[in-house]
Amino acid sequence: MMRLVKVEKFFPNKQMITVGIGDYKIASNPKILATYALGSCVAIILYDRFKSIGALIHAMLPEPKISRQDNPMKYVRTSIPIVLSELIKKGVSKHRLISALIGGANVLKYASSINIGDRNVKAAREVLREVGIPIVVEDVGGTVSRSVFFDLEEATVFVTSPRRKIFFG
User: Fold this and answer.
1) For the whole model, what pTM was predicted?
2) Residue 166 domain-assigned?
3) Rounded Cα distance, 115 and 162, in Å
4) Mind listing the pLDDT tens digit for each residue in 15-68?
5) What DSSP line would sit under 81-143, residue for residue?
6) Residue pLDDT, tens place only, 67-82
C-alpha cells in the first residue's frame, strides 16, 4: 500500500529525481520522485507496488483547449493516459497500479470563482476512475501550496507546505 506523511521539511537520503511543471518522470526503487510549489497544480502519482516502479506528473490545467496544440503533459486529462502507456511499456500491469493526488489548492483568493485547483482534482479523479486506477492517498484542496516527495522504496508520499503548521501526536 501507499501512505501519506506530512512533514515540515524533507531531507532525502536517496537519489532524487525532480519533476518540473508540465512534465513527468518514471523511476524505480530506490529513488525519490519530487515536485515543488504545487499551488493549483496537481501532482498525480501512479505506482506499481509489486515492481516498485512509479511515475509522478505535475499537471497545470484540467484539459487543453480544442483549438490549441501544445505540451500534453500540462493537462490532467491528456497526461495520465500518456504516462500510463509509458508505464505499461516498462512492464507494469495497469491492474496493479494505485495512485495519489496532491495539490489542487486555491492559492489565489481573488480567483475563487474559477478555482483551477478544484477543477484539476476533479479531472484527475475522473480520468483515474475511467482507466480503473484507485486513488489510495489524497492531500488536495485548501489554500496553501505543497511540495511532494515520493519514496518508491517505502511507497511513502511526503508532503511539505511552507505556510501550514504540522501537528504531531
Assistant:
1) 0.92
2) no
3) 21
4) 999 999 999 999 998 999 999 999 999 999 999 999 999 999 999 999 988 766
5) HHHHHHHHHTT--GGGEEEEEEE-----GGGGGG-HHHHHHHHHHHHHHHHT--EEEEEE-SS
6) 666 899 999 999 999 9
Tally the domains of the chain.
1
Q: Which residue has the cell 512492464?
A: 91
Which residues form the domain of 134? Answer: 3-12+36-51+58-63+70-160
Query: 153-163 burial, b for 16+ CB within 10 Å, e for fewer?
Result: ebbebbbbbee
* Pick from 56, 19, 47: nearest CA to 133: 47
Task: Give residue 33's Cα distance to chain centre.
Answer: 10
Give the integer Cα–Cα distance in Å for 40 and 118: 8
Any domain includes 21: no
